[in-house]
């Protein structure tokens, strides 16, 4: 079990820290917990993309970059993102809202707990170039960079404030082999490639055109390059997630435009559907492994009272919504004021065609 700071629930929780400079896209410094290398938090069994404990398939070495064809050869030079404003509009607004971002920072006690599993499944080799999708505030990106000291890691995220925080963390820690770019990986070209591998820690579930997004990610990696990401299993196996409980207090979601898919934390929870999606995007050798982990956190990590307005719940419904949340989280509460959050997640692995 991973221990985070424990805190009893206050009568009225404080407002979130303000991310000054976020609207202007400035590199941002805001209150944050001390960084702990994510790989040190857990020691999961098993390694490699093969999905077995003993087999690690051969990886494309850095000297093989000359084999990359077409688009990949051009990506060795930095390329400015070509943004298409019609894609991922809701997610773009959400992850560039400073209040939402400040709330999300509390969740790092949960997301960082799985970084060791991501690194273990990816098995990065020193000297490789790695693309991290949805790099957020950079914790997993910095852990990847530590694993490839003679290589380089590029973190790409749609959030300008989180990317600014990630850059500041890299500066604070003196990490030189990492860079961060604000981009929509669904269609943008990311500088720094072609990459030996692409990785993501809960960052690939928010595409509204996932086949297009995963095809674009594949275009960024070398022939035979690896894709490894972490996503959540079904919501029923993650009772700490309160979105399902709050749904009755919200208006029904808007109808999706043609060709779009509704993104969300559980959009890749169906194993077979995810495999079909990746194969439709041109990936091969798709495999996955389920994991379960319990993390000790404070209530603030899971829920804050004034977040109800942020979710869009009318003030008249706050009391009933709060009661529903309390009932949902009560079984997770421990006598010391902490909460045991059971995390059910999955590592998914795939490989780009070799030719």
Give a brief outline of the structure:
This protein is α/β, with parallel strands linked by helices and 355 residues long.
What does this structure look like?
This protein has about 350 residues and is of the alpha/beta class. The chain has a domain at about 35-245 and about 265-290 and about 345-350: Rossmann fold (3-Layer(aba) Sandwich). The chain contains 13 helices and 8 strands. The protein has an 8-stranded mixed sheet with strand order 1-7-8-6-5-2-3-4. The model is unreliable at about 1-80 (pLDDT under 50).
Text of the CATH class of the domain at 35-244 and 266-292 and 346-351: Alpha Beta
The percent range for helix content is 25-40%
Gross morphology: globular
Radius of gyration: 20 Å
Biggest sheet: strand arrangement:
1-7-8-6-5-2-3-4
Low-confidence stretches: 1-81
Task: Name the CATH homologous superfamily of the domain at 35-244 and 266-292 and 346-351.
Answer: Vaccinia Virus protein VP39
What is the CATH-assigned architecture of the domain at 35-244 and 266-292 and 346-351?
3-Layer(aba) Sandwich
Give the distance, in angstroms, between the N- and C-terminal Cα atoms: 43 Å
What is the structural class?
alpha/beta
Examine the coordinates and then state which fold CATH places here, giving the name of the CATH topology of the domain at 35-244 and 266-292 and 346-351. Answer: Rossmann fold
Specify the number of helices. Answer: 13
Q: How do the helices and strands follow one another from N- to C-terminus? A: EHHHHHEHEHEEHEHHEHHHE
Biggest beta sheet attributes: 8 strands, mixed
Number of strands: 8
Classify the beta-strand content into a percent band: 15-25%
Overall mean pLDDT score? 78
